[in-house]
Amino acid sequence: MCGIIGISSHKSVSNSIINSLKKLEYRGYDSAGIATLADGLINEVKSKGRVENLENNFDLKNLSGNIGIGHVRWATHGVPNSVNAHPHSSENVSVVHNGIIENSTILKKYLLGKGHKFKSQTDTEVIVHLITENLKSSELQEAITKTLKQLHGSFALGIIFKDIPDLIIGARRGSPLAVGYGPNENYLGSDSYALKSMTNKITYLEDGEFCFIKKDEVNFFNEEGIKINKKVLELSSDQQNYDKGDFKHFMAKEIEEQPQTLKTGIKEYLDSMNNDINIYNFPWKINEIKSIMLIGCGTAYHSCLMAKYWFEELTTLDVNIDIASEFRYRKNRFKNDTLYIFVSQSGETADTYAALDLCNKNNMKTCAVVNVIESSIARDSNFVLPIHCGPEIGVASTKAFLGQILVLYILSLKLSSLREEIKNKDYQEKIKDLKNLPGLIEETLSVDNDIQAIASTFNEAKGSMFLGRGFSFPIALEGALKLKELSYVHAEGYPAGEMKHGPLALIEEGMPVVVLAPRDNYYKKTISNMQEVVARGAKVLLITNKSKDEIVSENIWEKIEVETTNDDLLPFLLTIPLQKLAYYSALKKGYDIDKPRNLAKSVTVE
Ligand code: F6R
């Protein structure tokens, strides 16, 4: 999604801005641009498509200036082209913006009335002219405070001024924004990835705050324009994770990293000596929690659904789940004895953050399951359970999904033990199985050639279905999501038992259908559902786990067997072939696997 970078330095900044924009490419975007200030003039270059186009289409050596802002845009208002690309500039002011200005139509009408001329179809251009208008009657700081109050919606902003040679203003409401500190230069960035190559010293802006960044000093203000002090944080360095190494794509690398992801998570949360689970500093007493609400979007929502099955299996807690964009606008019945869990890889997803914010405002117990521990969702939750996956760069979530469900499984097991709802022998057994899980994932990853061959059938079909029951149902949804987002073919995840209630009408001769039927409690029922689709001509890819017992069904098109473990942990193993299926089908089509069309890694608009 959109990304911002700003640099105020003692030397020319255009190269560093381009390099930082490249770090933001993983977020998904459709145009890019830079503006620098040199000799009292704002110079701007913008292009549709990749940051590379800026380098190819313009001679950036001529874009001098020791201060500048850059942007990658994911279109919301107005098509992706060079006119709508950011920065947007008037003669005096240039702005980059992440987020959406909800009252832009009203503000535009007002500004047109004042004689301002608009070039683009974006909501952002309104901000440029509003600042320009407010500067006519107010000093800089007052004009900024006034402008920010006039804007409705969400924003992270970077602003430079023709007449102020060394200043970048940053402002945040809803969309994340960070300031970085370097030698004789300071930075503005929409996330720490963009700044990490330049500094590990960061300050995050909170909602309503803005800052004045000069090369040798940074000042922060609250929404009333009053100066405030803020902490400088030091980020950990995990630079090697930003390289693809020998892999063709980040996604391939991240799939293969999953045994390590699980090992790290297990090491963090398991006390191997005592065969127990450690969740340190849990801020509530166990009897204060009577129910659980899990909230997320996309893949993270599928993790929530997976967790619901485990919590219900292992505890007697009431468990509900919701999609963040629905939860935030519903008339919720907030309950003090509910633990609200927010699941998010990035920790910056706008809808998930808004749902968290709503719970915080109602004084609920909030817990974040996140990958990025410096993220807004992590910072604003009462308690954080990190998934310890390292940076996930591919837009399609893979290792973060396994990381999320690992942490949620560990939490459900721990709560079950603390609530004395699991026999100690079973608890110990499940912990032992968990320790063996990374090895089993590694084995399952070696099933590869079969999946490569199978992928073509999914590409050639009009659409496909992914079926599962019980613990396998969330994985069916996740498998279908991965296939549609990467190879742009229609794929539907469904509970296998629901087929007769409508979707069976879609089945026709040769339609590929993935059936997840591990040998768990649901096995026989799922196999019956599978026979119903086989009978109607579907090409069934059965994914099950290894077993001595024969499969009692004929006419299965293809079969993949994953390793065997206890029923709780089979979802981890079933996920692997589905990730690979999506990967290979996009690879065969030659699609941009790490940056699928129209999608963004960090969805910072609602
Ligand atoms: C799909 C995918 C998305 C994200 C969703 C939430 O592969 O990655 O569906 O899961 O946008 O993102 P986070 O987890 O960052 O909140």
Q: Spatial order of the strands in the main sheet?
A: 3-2-4-1-10-9-11-15
Radius of gyration, whole Å = 26 Å
Low-confidence stretches: none
- Number of DSSP helical runs: 18
Number of strands: 27
Largest sheet: 8 strands, antiparallel
- The average pLDDT value, as a whole number, equals 92
Note the quaternary state here. single chain
Class from secondary-structure proportions: alpha/beta
What is bound: which ligands? fructose -6-phosphate
Strand content is 15-25%
Can you tell me the overall shape? globular
Q: What distance lies between the first and last C-alpha atoms, to the nearest angstrom?
A: 11 Å
- The helix content, as a percent range, equals 25-40%
Descriptive notes:
35% of the residues lie in helices and 24% in strands. Strands 3-2-4-1-10-9-11-15 form an 8-stranded antiparallel sheet. β13 and β14 form a beta hairpin. α8 (258-269) packs parallel to α13 (399-418), α14 (424-445) packs parallel to α18 and α15 crosses α18 (570-589). Fructose -6-phosphate binds at residues 297-300, 344-346, 349, 352, 396-397, 481, 485, 602-603.
